[in-house]
Amino acid sequence: FIRTLANLTTVNLGIRTDHLITFEVDPSRNGYDTPRTRQFAKTLLARLQTTPGVDAAGLATVRILDGNQWSSGMTIEGYQMKPREDNGQLCNAISPGYFKAMGMPIVAGRDFNERDESVGEPPKNADDETPEFRVAIVNELFAKKYFPRGNAVGRRIGFGGNPGTKTPIEIVGVVRNAKYTDVRSEVRSQVFFPYLEAGDAGGFVVFLRTTRDTESAFSAARQTVRGLDQNLP
Prior knowledge:
By secondary structure, the chain is of the alpha+beta class. It has five helices and ten strands; from the N terminus they run αβαβββαββαββββα. The strands form two sheets. It has a six-stranded mixed barrel. A three-stranded antiparallel beta sheet has the order 1-10-2. The chain is globular and about 50 Å long.
């Protein structure tokens, strides 16, 4: 048991766990709709990023390394799925600053930025021509698997695996591989979407890279959240 535990502490996660703290916020607990939630998230990150002792701040929809996951079948432009091949991809919706906070370098293309925020109402149904997400970032494993002969940046993907599935989402970046579901699982192909473009933006997990000790970093984070809405836990 001791050897197993020791081995798990030395697994390469693909993220930097030193000086990293995390906490959850769910604005819907105080009646926020999607537009207000997006604005709350933007303001919270902006304030956290200017907090003394904070090197980077970002958020994600899905908690990592604790068994949670968001998986979705996807169609990849120019790639022909083999019979019975699993087209499921691990997904997450994140903010600008997430990769910096996690210590995951962008190896091609760019990170998300203000250009990748929602520009209108989310699609009302599956037949709506307006995609929920316009851009995505994939990990190295995804890029090498589906685009082995060329750069993944600029290629397109889409939700679903049926013949004729549209691919309206442009890949704008490739990020270094990292663990997702848990420490023991192998790295799988992953797709990241911009949280601030999500049609149903809800609760999120904030990740802070800080030079402070844990207790004072959490105290500063609590004060920042309460400064925006004292009724949010």
